[in-house]
Amino acid sequence: MEHGTAEDYTLIDSQFKKHVSSHLPDYLMEILRSMAGPTFGYQIDRYRHSLQSATRALKNNESDEMIVAALLHDVGDPIAPANHSAVAAEILKPYVDDRIFWIIRHHGVFQGYYYFHHLGGDRDARDIFREHEWFDDCAYFCHEYDQNCFDPNYNEMPLEEFAPLVYDVFNRPSRFEGFELA
């Protein structure tokens, strides 16, 4: 790489951005589809869970960014189950506002309010964030778009209905100049 020129890297950057805008939404929706099948004891699989979350957000007139975030909030599960919230948040980070990023980044510990105590954990683990400005927003997200989205009788919208929103959000320019290193 040390022998590359500005022209080389301008071309590479242009080609890479074109590829990302053409394929990233498809890759993410394919990851969602891969979550169909195993229920791990829940009444539905994680694919339907994600669709229910996004459907509820849409019906509550949330922003496009929040609807897409609800759809993708668990997209890190297949590749990083121990820190899926962080993975999903980092995927969304360049395309959503800081509040939505924070909500998705911390939804895992907030969701624990509903079940940690059943596994010998602290259901109030989320209280370490009690003074954060978006604490209530994250608690709301988990209450409205996560813990209640395991309903086998809920009529969620199909993934194809969300595709235009996913393409719209991920085809926006990144909020960051250059590459985000931290």
Globally, the shape reads globular
- How many β-strand stretches? 0
CATH-derived topology: Hypothetical protein af1432
Give the CATH class: Mainly Alpha
CATH superfamily: Hypothetical protein af1432
Low-pLDDT parts are none
> How many domains comprise the coordinates?
1
CA distance, first residue to last residue: 22 Å
**How many strands, which pairing sense, and closed or not: the largest β-sheet?**
none
What does this structure look like?
The structure is a single chain. This protein is mostly helical. It has a single domain (19-170), classed as Hypothetical protein af1432 (Orthogonal Bundle). Helix content is 54%, strand content 0%. The chain has helices at residues 6-34, 46-59, 64-72, 84-92, 98-111, 135-145, 159-170. The chain is globular, with a radius of gyration of 18 Å. The mean pLDDT is 94.
Give a short synopsis of this structure:
The chain is mostly helical.
Question: Main traits of this protein?
Answer:
54% helix; globular; mainly alpha; single chain; 7 helices; Hypothetical protein af1432; 182 residues
SSE topology sketch:
Layout: H1 6-34, H2 46-59, H3 64-72, H4 84-92, H5 98-111, H6 135-145, H7 159-170
